[in-house]
Amino acid sequence: MANNDGVDAPFLPGNLKCMEAVYEPSRQQKIKHVVTTTVVVILIVMSIAVFERYDSELPQLQNVRRASEANYLDTNGKTFPWQQLRLPRYITPMEYHIRIYPDFRAKTFNGSVTIQMLTEQQTKLITLHGKKMKITNVDVNIESKDGSIWRKGQVRAMYESQKLEMHILEMTEILLERTKVNVTLAFEGKLMKKLSGFYLSNYTKPEGEVKYLAATLFEPTSAREAFPCFDEPDMKAKFTISIARSKDQISLSNMPLLTSTTYNRDIILDTFQQTVKMSTYLVAFVVCDFQSVNRTTSQGTKVSVYAPPHQISQANFALDTAVKVLDFYNKLFGIKYPLPKQDLVALPDFAAGAMENWGLITFQLTAILLDPDVSSARDRQYVVIVIAHELAHQWFGNLVSLKWWNDVWLNEGFATFVEYLGANEIDPSFSKMDLFVQSEMINTMAIDCEGNSHPVTATVSDPSQINGLFDAISYGKGASLIRMLSNFMGEEKFWDGIKKYLNTYKFGNARTEDLWDILTEFTQTNVSSMMDTWTKQMGYPVITMKRKDEGVQVTQEHFLLGRQKAPLSPYNYKWNIPFRYAVAKTSGISDQLINIHMDSGTKFQADHDQVKWMKGNYGMYGYYRVNYEESNWRALIKQLTDNHTVFSSTDRAGLIDDVCFLARAHKVSQTMALNMTKYLRNEGDYLPWSVALDCLTFIGERLRNKAVYDKLQKYTVGLMHPIIAKLSWEDTGSLLDKFLRSLMIDKALEFGHQTTIKNGKTMFHSWMKDGKKLNVNLKGEIYRAGAQYGDISESNFIYKEYIKAPIPSEKHTLLVALCYTSHESILQRLLKETAKGDVIRHQDLRIIMAEISKNPKGQLLAWIFLKDNWNNILEWFSGSLFVLPDLIQSATSSFSSVKRLAEVKAFFNSVDASAGKRQVLTSLNQIQMNIDWLENNEDEVTSWFKDPGNILLDNS
């Protein structure tokens, strides 16, 4: 198929709303593009065609309905000729030639796509995806068997199913097996302000002029909203993309620009080089007026960062990071980045942090732009890890793609794991491999212990189910399992296996099983038999270590919170576990790695008289919890009290997290969990403090309206006071020291530490009244002090600063702080402005709902907003990953009364909540768990805080 030979005219606004494109292949199989200005609209009402038999190579679709059992209808109410949620495999796409024109005045787009395809078996039906678009003309050309001539094919009928998001062309003749077919479809659609597909965005220049742009976000199933296509990841093809634009704009796509042709002095048609073989969800294009900065990697890849002209000065840090990370990954993976360029584009409207489109990564502004004089260390860290994540995808996901979305973890889990390696390589001070334990493993385990979780690999077919898999299980758990396996195999063998995996499946598709098979070659263990127990069933085990006779008995069971029962599991919730433990004896500490088989317990020898304590999951590489006899818990607490540095900071964090969650599951007492927190007055590391404060915050949220809450506040600030005094407000120490200082001050404000409140307000007023420059790493906390404990004038000042802030990271910091205001009128204004989408963009609703819900004055407001704006929310975020589940979670999951439980259940039963069904069930389960926690634990916790032995002087 030719790339851009014989292009006669672009798509011209005004005289060409949408076009008829006739493609006439030559004997050399080149396609000549002849564009006319005639709009031919095909309106077809036909009876049901013969249902073509489906290729049997898709095992996940064995239980499909035949035409006689159909319930998928076409737009005329008749049975659609194809009755499966997956496309048939009787036709394979080979090449696409896409030409598209966004009309910003009319807020529409139109174009054409020619798809060269190959029939795998004889058929009359050509089935492909299309959604929210109008196909205005179809032209089919068929190659002769010997390849000597092309002839025009006749389309007898055309069908559309909105439910299946598919179109079918029924030919008058049977297309024989191994026949090449060129199908050209002209189409048009609406260019809307949404966050998926091909969508409209804008930004405002400093002088007030509004500039429009158009961008794409196709993952997982939105390419079909931009052009008709075979929109499934294993139906890879090559793409040649042409974009018509005005002369004051630029266009970007996956590959470098090949040619630019001017028409009528105003319209330019940009044609890009043909891509490598890739999936439709990785296709991308942007039309904008951005500027760029660029550099070249040591291996010759041109890297460019694009941003609105007034923000391009904020792109240099991202450019430097991207070049360094690409150089590192080239060495790590042993495969050179395969494209000639890598663009990174900062978009004003973007639902996710970023999207890994091959050669054209798109970002939310806060994930790529920063000013070193204004942005904090955490802002810089965020930019580094997002860039490292998306560049990891250029190999994991792009070079080797998943075969189907049930293995989305192969993309996201690997990229999440590798992002930490990339970030740590760029700047070891980030200590990212230590932070992995909390950010990915501990945070994910907190939700993976509920009955509504799901396996890492889950059977999906419907697009709404696919979106639901882009969650912490695929990202955090997937990454944690990879880290656990790497530690078990040894890094050298593990990476040897990964390099072979990438080389074996490059430019193709793979399944989880394919990865396990290759890794098995590099270890004496059958990787599949071990890892399938982790990927094919939800949740994780709790391992109990109990002294018995002359040794220690180790057993496992499924760790589950809440009343909701887990679904059936193929392994009956047993796991093959690489278990590392440590034993402290009078002679010292020794550790060992053993295998716990799913069908049997394990026992190891130990001289009980010599054992001081035992610690399971030593090093915190295992995705499981560990429980002990009460005597061993007491011994561990004593060790923490006497000398906590015997354990690494990650092991201390793991002990705190385990005891807190085991207390929630009634496997240890709440008293035991609270007793462990006492040692924290001597703790000086970020990770243990972060986990412990999450635990105390959880208890506080349950008891906020109870009389004992005051005692919990005093206890918590009493614990924190020594470290707050030591750290002070000065910007000193390591990166983790800075993170700890920020955390402690933030929590001190939350729990009412008077000295911190006073200092924070003083600094806020110095900034507000005198313009004093603030510590960039504590600005968020200082802004919060003004918002939470100041008058309404302070909150109004923050809002005005938010509106005019030119740095995205600064806008984010101001917005988060404002959500903690004590004035409901400000909270209501934030929600109303987000609904408008002008001053505060729709994409920021995730931030506002998450933060306002933590504010006692905002929790109910967030819930009311969600209910009142549900239909709008569905429209804003239809097809967007992450957003809808996060909004449901934020607005509902902290409720703890029977009344609210009934209200949440009734509301979601009354609306279309199919796109967020999993999160609705999760939130209902969490509300019930909150209710149960109060019933089961309030008295014990209240008694503990009333005990004089547990009173700490907060010195506030």
Short key terms for the protein model shown above:
956 residues; disordered N terminus; globular; alpha+beta; 8-stranded mixed beta sheet
Short structural summary:
Helix content is about 40%, strand content about 20%.
Q: Can you describe what's shown?
A:
Helix content is 38%, strand content 22%. The protein is α+β, with helices and mostly antiparallel strands. The longest helix has 30 residues. The radius of gyration is 29 Å and the shape is globular. A hairpin with a 5-residue loop joins β1 and β2. The termini are far apart.
Helix and strand arrangement:
Layout: E1 20-25, E2 31-36, E3 91-103, E4 108-119, E5 123-129, E6 133-143, E7 150-153, E8 155-161, E9 166-175, E10 180-190, E11 197-204, E12 210-217, E13 238-246, E14 250-253, E15 257-263, E16 267-272, E17 285-288, E18 291-296, E19 302-307, H1 316-333, E20 341-347, E21 354-355, E22 360-364, H2 377-393, E23 400-402, H3 408-426, H4 432-445, H5 463-468, H6 472-489, H7 491-505, E24 508-510, H8 512-520, H9 527-535, E25 541-548, E26 551-558, E27 577-585, E28 588-596, E29 602-605, E30 611-616, E31 625-628, H10 630-643, H11 649-664, H12 670-677, H13 686-702, H14 709-727, H15 735-750, H16 754-770, H17 779-789, H18 792-804, H19 808-818, H20 824-836, H21 845-852, H22 859-868, H23 870-877, H24 883-892, H25 898-910, H26 917-946
Parallel strand pairs: 3-13, 19-20, 20-22, 23-24, 25-31
Antiparallel strand pairs: 1-2, 3-4, 4-10, 5-9, 6-7, 6-10, 8-9, 11-12, 13-16, 14-17, 15-16, 18-19, 21-22, 25-26, 26-29, 27-28, 27-30
